[in-house]
Amino acid sequence: MRLTFIDVHVIYPGLEIPALNGVNLEIMTGERIALVGRNGSGKSTLMLTANGILRPRQGALLLDGQPVRYDRSGLRELRRNVGVVFQNPDDQLFSASVYQDISLGPLNLGLSHSEARDRVLQTAEFCGLSNLLERPTHALSGGEKTRAALAGVLAMSPRFLFADEVTNSLDPWMRQQVLEILERLADSGCAVILATHDWPLASAWAQRIIWLEGGSIFRQGKPAEVITAHNIDTFKSR
Ligand SMILES: Nc1ncnc2c1ncn2[C@@H]1O[C@H](COP(=O)(O)OP(=O)(O)O)[C@@H](O)[C@H]1O
Ligand SMILES: [Mg+2]
Questions:
Q1: Which of 23, 77, 120, 188 could share a disulfide with 102, CB 3.0–4.6 Å?
Q2: Domains of the chain by range and CATH?
Q3: To test ligand 1's pocket by mutation, which of 5, 8, 39, 44 has the most ligand atoms within 8 angstroms of CB?
């Protein structure tokens, strides 16, 4: 599958300066991508646009070459394929228990309770949460919350996963666990797009780096092509 941004402009209500300013981008399933750029460069906006929470003011989002429709069924189709894990897991976890939270997505997709149950158990195992299914989400540690939020999205079997700075607030051990989940996910053929400020992580983990600046793509390519002294000097002199 292929997710394409064509000249995408996103402007938040009441603001004049676009948060995304003409983004052209193509992502294929199976890719491992790091999305980098300073605070306010548009990383989160790009992710929220990818699954239709935000809508381009100008330009278009295409799934397998077909323009995304922003009605109920079009958004459902988009979200079945494109998942986003928010930067703050508390924005994503609503339910009384981890089990209920992970089951929300599959139930919303129209799966039966027993199919949803299978998905929950599988995903919980994949994310190392099997022992925590009855735990209230507010009683989870930071790393557990991140994994629960991730599991809730993965239970919908997305083909593109956008993970917004999910490794940021974690200790090194938890961070490693989350990275391993993302790694296995990419190996299974899902595209994984990770927003991060961690440049060493980005260059070690990603096949492609997308570097945003002021809502536009400043550079993109293989880590060794993107993270060069020249590009960093150009970036700083802007
Ligand atoms: N909910 C919002 N309302 C208005 N402006 C926003 C909102 N979220 C982000 N912005 C603005 O959009 C731009 C891009 O922000 P964002 O996508 O959050 O960047 P990043 O994730 O790279 O830090 C910034 O100028 C930011 O202030
Ligand atoms: Mg952000």
A1: 120
A2: 2-236 (3.40.50.300)
A3: 44
